[in-house]
Specification:
- By secondary structure, the protein is α/β, with parallel strands linked by helices.
- It folds into 2 domains: 111 residues, NAD(P)-binding Rossmann-like Domain (Rossmann fold); 158 residues, 2-Layer Sandwich (Dihydrodipicolinate Reductase, domain 2).
- It is 36% helix and 28% strand.
- It has an 8-stranded mixed sheet with strand order 8-9-10-7-11-12-13-14. It has a 6-stranded parallel sheet with strand order 3-2-1-4-5-6, with helices on both faces.
């Protein structure tokens, strides 16, 4: 077995702290240090995890093979750019950049430098979605609802980039067809950005996806439903549950001729699965599960949805 991968975390606020804790728990990784512009926050976490703290992330980069970047979205581009130029592999939280042009440049730079760039679309690693992915053959209609309580965290971007982008990533990876038409609407409620949004996407394959995201809900909901010939699949991300209803001659149940299967998965540490996948990809020299191109595609679609909302509002 080779030496542990030397890793660091840049930005140890709410999400970055969890990244650091996961790396510290992995036998295949060595948490060399954390970097944060708030010295007290970085030093406190470094002391807890028995590692080093830096206020300038550029001092950390020469010491590591790979980094997680969990700074605010507007700062993703310079931090990821510096990391790739230093020769580090990068796992960056979603959205991968503040603009499509920035994201394209990061993808190009990663390829040029021969370094992996992975984007933190966490729910790719949800067990229910992993099983759904194995059963999808010909998506015809998709419906998603992602509703969350209002939180101060994440309001530097609109709800499409904050929440809906998870489901955009799922839809793009499952449908695997260019988007032909976008219709979208959204409203601002408690912030100066869109807090509730709905998007209807029509793909060249004929598949339709209807997605709703809100950070103004009194009830949390993360559900994703897919219809295809002879089969209905539904993931409840919070319950870690996949429901499959499939046409089956002679099947008995609530709907004659339809076999119903509800699969419940044990609660998992999805972030640990994501970070383990990143460490393994780097260690084995294999493309990570959610590469820069996938992150770019989700970001570009999110931006196009926002543009469609502005057009609809006049």
């Amino acid at each position: 077995m080779g030496s542990p991968l030397k890793v660091g975390v840049i930005g140890v606020g709410y999400l970055g702290r969890f990244h650091a804790e996961k790396y510290a728990s992995l036998p295949g990784a060595e948490l060399v240090g954390v970097a944060d512009v708030q010295p007290e926050r970085g030093q406190s976490l470094a002391q807890t995890l028995n590692t080093k703290s830096f206020t300038d992330y550029r001092q950390l980069l020469p010491l590591v093979d790979a980094v997680s970047v969990a700074v605010p979205t507007t700062e993703h581009f310079p931090v990821v750019q510096d990391s790739l130029n230093q020769g580090c592999h990068v796992l960056v939280e979603k959205p991968m950049a503040a603009t499509v042009d920035e994201a394209r440049e990061l993808v190009r730079l990663g390829r040029e430098r021969g370094r992996f760039l992975m984007v933190g679309h966490l729910e790719r690693f949800n067990a229910g979605m992993e099983e759904m992915r194995r059963q999808v053959t010909q998506p015809g209609f998709i419906e998603s609802h992602r509703l969350a309580f209002y939180k101060e965290r994440g309001i530097d971007v609109d709800v499409v980039l904050d929440l809906m982008i998870h489901d955009l990533d799922h839809v793009l990876s499952l449908v695997n067809s260019p988007v032909r038409e976008i219709r979208a609407a959204g409203v601002s409620v408690l912030t100066d950005k869109i807090d509730l949004a709905n998007a209807r996407l029509e793909f060249q394959s004929g598949c339709i996806a209807n997605l709703t995201a809100s950070r103004m809900s009194l009830k949390s909901m993360r559900r994703f439903r897919l219809f295809q010939p002879n089969t209905y699949l539904a993931v409840d991300f919070e319950a870690q549950e996949l429901t499959v209803a499939a046409r089956q001659e002679g099947a008995l149940g609530p709907i004659p001729g339809v076999a119903l299967d509800i699969q419940r998965f044990p609660k998992e540490d999805v972030l640990l699965k994501e970070i383990t996948a990143f460490v393994d990809a780097v260690a084995q020299g294999q493309e990570p599960p959610v590469n820069g191109e996938a992150g770019l595609a989700a970001l570009e679609l999110a931006m196009n949805i926002n543009a469609a909302m502005k057009t609809a509002q006049g």
